[in-house]
Amino acid sequence: MFTGIVEELGEVTAVEKLADASRFRLRGPLVTEDAKHGDSIAVNGVCLTVVEAADGEFTADVMAETLKRSSLGALEPGSRVNLERPMAVGERLGGHIVQGHVDGVGTVLDRTPSENWEIVKISLPAQLSRYVVEKGSITVDGISLTVVDAAADHFTVSLIPTTLALTTLGIKQSGDTVNLEVDVIAKYVERLLGPNAQESLK
After folding, report:
1. What is the DSSP secondary structure assignment for residue 172, as one 8-state letter?
2. Distance CA 170, CA 165 (A)
3. Contact, 119 vs 76, CB < 8 A?
4. Residue 134 contacts residue 148 (beta carbons within 8 Å)
C-alpha cells in the first residue's frame, strides 16, 4: 500500500521485451537503499515487485495484463518515472490510500501555467467518471492529487512548484499518457450499496 507521495524521480535504464511481458531496469538510489527481492515499489503508480536490486538500480517483471492496463508499455531507456516505496506502519499518511493498481489511462489535454502553480487538464475514461469528484483524491502516475474540477470526460488538478519539480508531471506534455487510480473507498462503497448488496448480506 502506498500514499501517493512520490519519493524519487527515477529513470528507466533498460527494457527487455519478452514474449508476453517486459523486464524493466530502473535507477532509483533512494528507493533501493533498503530494497530486496520480493519488495514492492510503485513506478508511475503501478505496484511492481523487485526481482533484484543493486547499485542504486532494480529490475521488475511487468506482465502483459499490466502493460495492457497502464502506460508502462510506452517506457523506454531514458524515460523518467515516479518512484515510491510502500508505506511503513506507524508513519504519517501524507496523501491518501493508494494500492498501486491502475484503473485506467488518461491523456494530458492542456496545461495552464500561473505564477505559483499550474492547472493540468487530464482526460477521464468513461468507466472512471463516477469515482472522481471535486475536492476528492485521485492518483496520477502515482502522485496523490486533489481534484479541482470534475467533468464526465476529464478532470483538472492544480500542481504546486514542488510537484512540478520533483515528479514527471513537471515534464508531461499535451498528448502524453498517465496512469490513473481512483479512490478505492469509493469503489467499495459502490459495491456495498449496489443492487446486489442486500442479496449478498443474506
Report:
1. -
2. 6
3. no
4. yes
In this structure, are residues 17 and 50 in contact, taking their beta carbons and an 8 Å threshold?
A: no
Length of the chain as a residue count: 202
Q: Are 17 and 102 a contacting pair, CB within 8 Å?
A: no
Assessment of whether the complete model's pTM goes beyond 0.90: no
Per-residue pLDDT of the chain (202 residues; tens, 9 = 90+): 898 999 999 999 999 998 889 999 999 999 999 999 999 999 999 999 999 999 999 999 999 989 999 999 999 999 999 999 998 877 777 778 888 999 999 999 999 988 888 999 999 999 999 999 999 999 999 999 999 999 999 999 999 999 999 999 999 999 999 999 999 988 888 888 877 654 544 4
∠ CA 7-27-70, nearest 5°, is 75
Q: How far is the C-alpha of 188 from the C-alpha of 171, rounded, in Å?
A: 34
**Single-letter code of the amino acid located at 47:** C
